[in-house]
Amino acid sequence: MSPSTWEAVIGIEIHAQLLTRTKMFCGCALSFGDPPNTHTCPVCLAHPGALPVVNREAIRLAIIAGHALGCEISGSSVFSRKNYFYPDLPKAYQISQYDQPICGRGRFRYLTEGGEKTLGITRAHLEEDAAKLIHLGGEGRRANADSSVVDFNRGGTPLLEIVTEPELHHGSDAAAFLKQLRQTLVHLGITDGSMEQGSMRADANISIRPVGSTGLGTKTELKNMNSFTYLERGIAAEVERQIGVVESGDVVTQETLHYEPATGHITSLRSKEEAHDYRYFPEPDLVPVVPDRAWVEELRAELPELPIDRRERWIRDLGLTFEDAEVLSEPAELGDYFEQVAALAPPKSAANWVRGDLRAQLRERGQEPWDSEVSPEAVAQIIELVESRAISMPSAKSVLAEVIETGGQPRAIVAEQGLGSIQDESALVAIVDTLIANNPAQAEQLRDGKDKLVGFFVGQAMKATQGRADPERIGQLIRERVAAG
Amino acid sequence: MIDDDVTRHVARLARLALTEPELARMRHELSVILDYVDQVQELDLIDVVPTTHAIPMQNVFRDDVPTPSISAELALREAPEVLGGGFAVPRMG
Amino acid sequence: MALTDLTAEQAIAAIVSGQTSSCELVEAHLARTERDVWNSFLAVDRAGALARAREIDALPERPPLAGVPIAIKDALSIRDLPTTAGSRILEGFRPVYTATCVARLEQAGAVVIGKTNMDEFAMGSSCENSAYGPTLNPWDLTRVPGGSSGGSATSVAARQVPWSLGSDTGGSIRQPAALCGIVGLKPTYGAISRYGLIAFASSLDQVGPFARTVRDSALLLQAMVGRDPMDATSLEWPVPILLPDAERLDGVRVGVIEELMGDGIDPGVRAACQTALARVEALGGTLVPIKLPHARYGLATYYLIAPAECSANLARFDGIRYGHRAEDTENLLEHYERTRGEGFGPEVKRRIMLGTFALSSGYYDAYYGQAQRVRTLIIRDFATAFAEVDLVASPTSPTVAFPLGERTSDPLAMYLSDVCTIPISLAGLPSISIPCGLSEGLPVGLQLAGPAFSENRLLAAAHALETAIGFVDRPTGSGE
Asked: Cβ C331–B14 below 8 Å, yes or no?
């Protein structure tokens, strides 16, 4: 048997912290990196008698996300209590949505190199994040820790949990989906999407089945992969592990797993004997959320162009490659900047300049195009100067450096510094003739058919003209004069 | 229907330590009470909507405006054990 | 007349007219509170109360409640005052915030003098489930005061305060009011904010006043009612709460709940209630027998819903952020199990177990789900009844105050103490118990209930009946 006889079946669960100002159920400000337990109150500390009240903004963001995910927005959604004991969960129940989530079925489109694909969304619901448990000693691992402490600053942060259908078969598609999802949610201001800081986290449910079968095998849950690469690699490793288990005659057990990126190892997170029974029931402290239909439609109408639509438009209408479109679409400000340049210059050149020299030069100064002195008009002007052969490529780079430095106009800089290409044909002929005279051996070899030496002469010519010659024309002249000589 | 194993399982779910005599007594008392409450099973309620709130309400929200948090000192005041600005958790094992 | 015999309304008038001061009044009540033969108080705040009384006396104008003292059930959170909910697990706990209803009363000029005893986490009908010893009934020190708000009821009956706050989940205000011969009001669910009320069963819990007159109850309700942004289930109150003064019941139709006037009700209790109800017609009202076909499932429904909710509400007591913590535990599981095993008393454990079971996998639909559906039927029964009548009436408790220890070994017998009050709680309706006579020398309570938001109608009828009944007996077991 070989991997080609097996098919992986993968579904993803994403937790995204919402970009609200305050927590899900109390007025404590969201924070990151502040001293422990400085953003708490009786509600998020679960003091006796304290009660939750739903943050309206979290509802708004969830509905916007639901629209972007192509979900139905529920006419009535209900919060429930999910009961389990853990030190990071102060009430010993998490308020979450269970059988009536705010966003129902949907379908999300994502772009891969091979074109657009879609993934079914099962649901998206609101809940509260757990607090942070810090293990002291024992290398920060729970099992070895001398002691552990809880910091409740993060506890109660609004989360949107998005659950997909188990329709994926490859880790690469899972990563492409997650990238597109993250970009979409960030673009819409729903989350900051930082996977390193844990504001967006992904789990994968993985099972395998013989190719051609439609049943589902026993699934495992791979927890908290904090980058696209790890998601892809983790899935591959787990699929391989499951195939190994089955082919050795064993059965896959349902469990929660952890993928260790450094080693590629997969370890079990929870002991099996502690079966969970969350005892969900409707949260009596909260009342149903029945979003006004007009409001829901208004939020749909206000939805900006989604990143996937923008990328597809660039590829279709502007002739960009998949990769150009991908690079330029993130962050959205870069895409906006690109579009302004592309409105004034050939889009392909605009793409090359914006993602290439412009961004590279600015990065050295810790700047990005949209917050720099360089206007899209200036970039378009440089492109125009290059493409009309008014300046050479090397000159163009110096002009850009000067624009970045002074904020000046490219045309003015070219004129002031005399960077314009040498257009005078006789001057170019003179330069070429001098070079041939000064390098007789190379000229001889060129004449004998060693065509590579054209490059040598062009290089010399560029040096002699401080880059103001048109290399293409120089090459032609070299060949003509050597042949004539 | 409630035997010792079920009683033990429920006590574990609820995180309640029960001694063996307490467990036996609990099993007995729960059985008596469950026998009584079982009368709700007599009714055929397939078409009846369950009630969570006797007084129907919907859409009660809070504006997303920060309100002052309490100081870390006050937050930790009632904690049985504090360590480095955090609530100490006993050995997790 | 002793200062401690004044009703709150009389006391306010006495302060406003300058006959007495808040300080004098508070001092007089503190004296009775500190000689607490009934064990009705768990904490007394002498210094705080007197300081507040002095502040109020110094104000250029008296606030509405004028500095009259009040006692608060220990289930309500008051910043920095010891608050235990009658449980060992909260021994020594001092809240970091004050419940909205208490803050509103303080704002209106009430002076909190202490926290009253209760069944642990409000689970009980006798006050015997307190971890700090039972409260004794001032009518007979060998009997229970009822519960769970037994301390609050006793403090008012024993003239330690003119009024107090309790909480009612299945009868915890009305039943002890009945057993102590005073007035107890449970408003419509959501009328008074639950923010700061240590939760027993969230969908049923409601704060309410104890007093010696209906008008005093109305005064307290007036000061607390209405929406609180901290409680999503609190209600925008549609009309002001009025102080009742009518003495007639012309045109008022009172439905007598047949299921609660027959078997299971002590004959002496039934007789006292029938005598009181006869006055309805004398006052111009009519009596109509009504049926609540599903009321008989009330107790079973309640003992599924309330424990289920409590099993989650009491999960937060885990010995990490506050409260009792077991010592020398080996691992997290043992920490939780021993902390909670040591901290909770037997009745609380029983209900947590029952609720955990009712919600657990495989049983939810048959128990919790089914109970929520029966709840719907009970609500419909009341809606049907209120299409015909303005109010319904029944005894508040099937018996008078029972001897200490009588029901402690039989949980089900204890649960039956609330058989009359529970259906109304399940429907979230406003309800009041007023003393209507004696049986075996002990007070009997008459329960009246109305549709949601009908507090003014309910208080008016209760006031008219109270006036007609003229209940003047007072407790003798006062230890004087």
From this structure: no
To 5 degrees, how large is the angle CA A436–CA A442–CA A443? 45
Q: Tens of pLDDT along A284-335?
A: 999 999 999 999 999 999 999 999 999 999 999 999 999 999 999 999 999 9
* Facing residue for A56 by CB, picked from B62, B83, B85: B62
Q: How many domains are there within chain A?
A: 3
Q: Do A133 and B88 touch (CB under 8 A)?
A: no
CA distance A191 to A171: 24
> How many angstroms away from the CA of A48 is the closest CA of chain C?
5
- What range defines the domain where residue B14 resides? 1-37
**Contact flag C360-A277 (C-beta cutoff 8 Å):** yes
Residue linked to tokens 């430095």:
A405
Direct distance between the N- and C-terminal alpha carbons of chain A, in angstroms, rounded to an integer: 71
The predicted pLDDT at position A474 comes to 85
Domain assignment present for C153: yes
The one-letter amino acid at C356: T
Total tally of structural domains belonging to chain B: 1
**Taking CB atoms and an 8 Å limit, are B53 and A289 in contact across chains?**
no
B64, B69, B70 ranked by CB distance to A56: nearest: B64
Q: What is the DSSP track for C298-332?
A: HHHHHHHHHHHHHHHHGGG-SSSSSS---SS-SSH
CA distance A452 to A450: 6
Which tokens belong to A227? 């980058």
Question: In the predicted model, what is the mean pLDDT of chain A?
Answer: 92
Domain membership of residue C156 (yes or no) is yes
Higher pLDDT, C411 or A451: C411
Q: Which residues of chain B have pLDDT under 70?
A: 1, 93
Half-sphere exposure (Cβ direction) of C164: Cα atoms closer than 13 Å: 35
CATH number, domain at B2?
Answer: 1.10.20.60
Check pLDDT > 90 for residue A153. yes
Question: Which residues from chain B sit within 8 angstroms of residue A59, using beta carbons?
Answer: 61
* Domain membership of residue A396 as a residue range: 305-417
CB proximity under 8 Å: B 15-54 to C:
15-18, 22, 26, 29-30, 32-34, 36-41, 43, 45, 48-54
* A410 lies in the same domain as A434: no
| C-alpha–C-alpha distance, residues C202 and A458, integer Å | 85
- Across the A:B interface, residue pairs with CB atoms under 8 Å apart total 115
pLDDT tens by residue, C10-29: 999 999 999 999 999 999 99
pLDDT, residue C479, reads 52
CB contact under 8 Å between C229 and A53, yes or no, is yes
CB contact under 8 A, B16 and C376: no
Testing the interface with C: which of B4, B9, B38, B40 to mutate, by most C Cβ within 10 A?
A: B40
Q: Which chain B residues are within 8 Å of C304, Cβ to Cβ?
A: 37, 40
Model-level pTM?
0.92
Pairing label, strands C442-449, C206-211: unpaired
Q: How many CB atoms are located within 10 Å of the residue A150 CB?
A: 27
Does the pLDDT value for residue C261 go beyond 60?
A: yes
**Smallest CA–CA separation between B7 and chain A, in Å?**
15
pLDDT band at A273 (very low <50, low <70, confident <90, very high): very low
Q: Give the CA-trace dihedral at B69, B73, B76, B82, to 10 degrees.
A: 140
**Cβ–Cβ below 8 Å for A49 and C361:** no
Give B13's contacts in chain C (Cβ within 8 Å): 356, 360
Domain co-membership, A354 together with A461: no
ipTM over 0.95: yes
The answer to whether C334 and B89 have CB atoms below 8 angstroms apart is no
Total domains in the fold of chain C: 1
Distance (Å, whole) CA C189 – CA C187 = 6
Which residue among B10, B39, B52 sits closest to C356, beta carbon to beta carbon?
B10
